[in-house]
Amino acid sequence: MLQDGAPPDQGRGTTVRTLGQFSVVINGIRIERWRAGRARQLFQCLLTEAGKPVSKATLIDSVWGDSTARSPDVSLKVAVYHLRNLITDAHRRGHGSGRPQLWIDLHRNGYSLTASEAVIDVDDFERALDAGARAAKAGREREVRRHYRTAVDLYTGSYLPECQDVWAMVRREQLKDRLLGAIDELTLLARRDGDRTVMPELHQRMLQIDPCREESYRELMRWHAGANQPSRVMHWYFTCANQLRTQLGIEPDRSTRQLFYDAVRGDLAARTGGPAER
Prior knowledge:
Elements: E1 14-17, E2 23-26, E3 29-30, H1 39-48, E4 54-55, H2 56-64, H3 72-93, E5 103-106, E6 110-114, E7 119-120, H4 121-138, H5 141-154, H6 166-192, H7 199-209, H8 214-226, H9 230-248, H10 254-265
Parallel strand pairs: 1-7
Antiparallel strand pairs: 1-2, 2-3, 4-6, 5-6
Organism: Kibdelosporangium persicum
Family: Belongs to the AfsR/DnrI/RedD regulatory family.
DNA-binding region: 5-115
């Protein structure tokens, strides 16, 4: 790693939020004014690959893209300069001592974001998912439930929701897919244990992440049919139909329509115990 301006020393605490909203707080000071030069986008791009060197060419393409900037190399250096100043300023204003827990390091052909000891919500989220996956592989179901539940609680929204760059959208979908897999595992465990009481919560959580997940609508319809709540069955069916038409331009699957017809006729209630079934 090249020495490109020694960073100030390490401070009291840094928190970075990326799920549901984006914020950086250093020693109690929130960075608000990211200035010109796309410093915010550059920080987010480096954060997505935190701890790993990212080439200058990749950063320029990811952050500036097809921009008409005449000197992209200069634009990158200016953005890095602004980022370092923002970090240093927040660190000092928060009366931090030592090296900041965030810093932009120079490498031979690029830059990396060092985030030693900083609290980053997406890292905590992925650690919980990883721990749950390891527990599942080892057959430790109690730990699976605990870790996956932690991941569900930590996921407060989409990754960098305001960023529409391709690299951010790819990362966003990867995280959503991982969470959906974890919730699906929780529903399988609950169903196997005969615990139907948690099913509505889990399936509604999946629909917050993927509003077109038809199987979750069917599960909610079954549950409310078993609870003798036809108005809720209709609510979920028409919500499903509206989401599919609006977002995908399709109608509900035949199995979803048949389930709805059976439920409103009362046929489904006789075949499911709803929330009382254990």
